C-alpha cells in the first residue's frame, strides 16, 4: 500500500470521495472540505492510501496551522485551549509557543473529524489502512516542520478504532493521548414524538404557539440568497457568547460556505416588517439534517432559537424522510429537553516535545465541553 498526497479535495472526483465517506457526516463530505481548505490560516493536504492497482481505499484530510486570523472558530481546534487552559489557566500559556505549527488530522471545522476508509474493506484490512494513513501523517508532520499533531472531535467508536489500529500496525508512531472532548446532540426524527413525555410535548407546543403568535413570518431559503442579512445576526450571537467576531467576518464566513455548500443548504428565516430577525442554517446530507449556525436580532420572536433551530428542522427532516437532526455541540440541556441524545467525540493528540508534565496530564482528561454535556 502506498500513500500519496494532493493539496486540494477539488483535485479528486466527488464520486471517489463519496465512496470513501459513505454514511459519514457532512463535515467529512467533499463540499464541506472544499470550503474548509479556503482559509488562509491553513495549508491543506489529503493523504490517499492506494492499493497496487491505484484503487484509493482510504483518505485523511490534514491541515497545517501556523496561526492566523484569531477567528473564534479556530480556537476550538487547539488542544491547549480545549484541554489544558480550562484546568491550568495561565499555567498552560508557557507551553503555547511549543505547539505551532500544528498539524490537524481529519478535520479543522465542524466539530466532527476522522479518517475515511472504504466501507467494503474487511476489518483487518481496514485497520492496516488507518494505521498507514496515520504513519503518513507523522511523516508529513516531520517534513513540514509541524511541532504537534491532533485529531479532534472523532466519534468515540472511530477514535477507539484508530487507537487499536495504531497499537497493532504502527508501533513506530508515538502513542497519542486520548480523551473525551465534546459531544454531538442528535434527535431521532421518527421516535422523538413518541419518546417525549406529555409534559414536554405541551411545553414544545406552548413555545411554538408563542412564536407563531408573535407576528413574525417563517420562510426557507438557500444560503446564497440570505447570507448578507444573516451575517450580522451571527456576529451578534458570537459576541453575546464572548467572542470578538465582527459582522463582516461572519458575513464572509457564510458567503464562503454558500460558494461550496449552497446546494445542500436550508436556512430557516424569521422576518418582521421585511427585516430578517432570526435564522438557522442547516445542511441536508445523507440521512441527517445538520443545524450549523444561527443568529437572532434583539426583537426576534419568543423562543426563536428553539423554533428555528429545532422545531423547524425537525419538521423539514420529517417531510424529507430523514432519520436524524444533528444540533451540534453546546447548549446541551436545552437540546436534551427537546428530545436530543448525545454522541461523544474524542481527541487523539501527539503533543510537542518539551511539553510540561502538567499540560501533558490534562491531555488525557475529559474536555470542558464533554463534562458540560454529561452534567
How is this structure best described in words?
This protein has helices at residues 14-20, 30-36, 72-75, 79-88, 123-144, 156-169, 192-195, 198-212, 227-240, 247-261, 304-320, 332-336, 357-362, 368-374, and strands at 2-6, 42-50, 56-65, 102-105, 116-117, 148-155, 177-188, 217-221, 265-272, 275-285, 288-296, 324-328, 341-350. The radius of gyration is 21 Å and the shape is globular. With 375 residues, the protein is α+β, with helices and mostly antiparallel strands. The chain is built from 14 helices and 13 strands. A hairpin with a 2-residue loop joins strand 10 and strand 11 (288-296). The longest helix has 22 residues, at 123-144. Strands 1, 2, 3, 4, 5, 6, 7, 8, 9, 10, 11, 12 and 13 form a 13-stranded mixed β-sheet that branches. The protein folds into two domains: 2-183 and 343-374, Aminopeptidase, CATH 3.40.630; 190-322, 3-Layer(aba) Sandwich (Aminopeptidase), CATH 3.40.630.30. Helix 8 (198-212) crosses helix 11. Helices cover 39% and strands 26% of the residues.
* CATH topology-level name of the largest domain: Aminopeptidase
Q: How much strand?
A: 25-35%
Q: In oligomeric terms, what are we looking at?
A: single chain
Number of helices: 14
Main structural class: alpha+beta
Number of strands: 13
Q: In the CATH classification, which architecture of the largest domain applies?
A: 3-Layer(aba) Sandwich
Major sheet attributes: 13 strands, mixed
The helix content, as a percent range, equals 25-40%
What would you give as the CATH superfamily of the largest domain?
Gcn5-related N-acetyltransferase (GNAT)
Give the overall pLDDT as a whole number.
94
Any low-confidence stretches, pLDDT <50, length ≥5?
Answer: none
Radius of gyration: 21 Å
Mind telling me the CATH class of the largest domain? Alpha Beta
Distance between the termini: 45 Å
Q: Write down the domain tally.
A: 2
Amino acid at each position: 500500500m502506498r500513500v500519496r498526497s494532493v493539496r486540494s479535495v477539488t483535485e479528486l472526483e466527488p464520486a471517489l470521495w463519496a465512496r470513501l465517506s459513505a454514511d459519514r457526516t457532512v463535515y467529512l463530505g467533499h463540499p464541506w472540505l472544499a470550503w474548509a481548505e479556503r482559509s488562509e490560516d491553513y495549508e491543506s493536504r489529503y493523504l490517499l492510501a492506494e492499493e497496487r492497482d491505484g484503487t484509493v481505499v482510504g483518505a485523511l484530510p490534514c491541515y497545517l496551522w501556523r496561526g492566523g486570523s484569531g477567528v473564534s472558530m479556530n480556537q476550538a481546534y487547539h488542544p491547549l485551549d480545549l484541554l489544558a487552559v480550562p484546568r491550568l489557566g495561565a499555567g498552560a500559556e508557557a507551553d503555547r509557543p511549543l505547539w505551532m505549527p500544528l498539524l490537524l488530522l481529519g478535520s479543522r471545522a465542524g466539530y466532527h473529524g476522522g479518517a475515511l476508509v472504504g466501507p467494503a474493506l474487511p476489518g483487518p484490512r481496514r485497520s492496516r489502512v488507518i494505521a498507514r494513513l496515520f504513519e503518513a501523517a507523522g511523516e508529513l508532520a516531520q517534513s513540514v516542520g509541524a511541532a504537534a499533531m491532533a485529531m479532534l472531535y472523532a466519534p468515540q467508536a472511530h477514535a477507539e478504532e484508530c487507537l487499536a489500529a495504531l497499537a497493532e500496525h504502527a508501533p513506530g508512531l508515538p502513542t497519542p493521548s486520548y480523551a473525551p472532548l465534546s459531544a454531538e446532540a442528535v434527535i431521532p426524527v421518527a421516535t422523538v414524538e413518541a419518546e417525549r413525555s406529555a409534559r414536554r410535548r405541551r411545553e414544545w407546543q406552548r413555545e411554538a404557539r408563542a412564536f407563531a403568535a408573535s407576528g413574525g413570518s417563517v420562510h426557507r431559503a438557500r444560503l446564497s440568497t440570505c447570507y448578507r442579512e444573516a451575517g450580522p445576526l451571527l456576529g451578534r450571537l458570537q459576541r453575546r457568547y464572548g467572542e470578538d467576531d465582527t459582522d463582516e467576518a461572519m458575513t464572509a464566513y457564510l458567503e464562503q460556505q454558500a460558494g461550496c455548500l449552497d446546494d445542500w443548504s436550508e436556512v430557516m428565516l424569521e422576518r418582521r416588517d421585511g427585516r430578517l430577525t432570526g435564522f438557522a442554517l442547516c445542511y441536508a446530507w445523507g440521512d441527517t439534517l445538520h443545524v450549523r449556525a444561527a443568529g437572532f436580532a434583539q426583537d426576534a420572536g419568543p423562543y426563536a432559537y428553539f423554533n428555528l433551530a429545532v422545531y423547524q428542522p425537525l419538521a423539514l427532516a420529517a417531510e424529507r424522510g430523514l432519520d436524524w437532526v444533528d444540533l451540534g455541540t453546546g447548549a446541551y440541556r436545552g437540546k436534551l429537553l427537546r428530545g436530543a441524545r448525545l454522541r461523544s467525540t474524542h481527541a487523539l493528540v501527539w503533543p510537542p516535545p518539551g511539553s510540561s508534565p502538567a499540560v501533558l496530564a490534562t491531555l488525557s482528561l475529559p474536555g470542558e465541553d464533554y463534562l458540560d454535556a454529561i452534567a
